[in-house]
Amino acid sequence: MPTGITSIELSDRERREITGYAAGCARRTLPIFEKERPADARPRNAIDAAHAFADGGRRTAALRQSAWAAYRAAQECVSPAAADAARAASHAAAAAYLHPRASAHQVKHLLGAAAHAARAEELVSEEGRSVVGATLEWARRHAPPAVSAVLGRLPAAPAGGGRVGELIRTLDSALRRR
What's this model's pTM, rounded to 2 decimal places? Predict the structure, then answer.
């Protein structure tokens, strides 16, 4: 990406495809959250709101609020896996608000649901880190063309972010090679 570029093109179609993808990634780990907090519907509501937007719904205050509600649900979890599953749901709803900024930070918004879902699966699997390869491969295979197209307009994922940041960078690299 050339230096000095501060914004990218980002169509509504791309935003919807990315949000649908993020919701699909997050939905995979919803049972991890619901096992710990079966009466808490906030992550499920965020995923449902993300799917509704992806299917042609409007970006509303309720959609944004559902992302924040899932984020708050993550803060109330006891287990790190349930917290990551709720964060995946939060990122899914927030993907509808992806900005057309040419910043590495946007990569975290684009791939955050997939990375948090992968981390949640890693934490509950008896296989630990070895399950991540299969999870990231699923995320790579299910990514719609808009994900790679938009990533191609952004700088690479930023350093830092612990294990989730590492997963974001791994997935970012894989999707840019498609």
Answer: 0.94
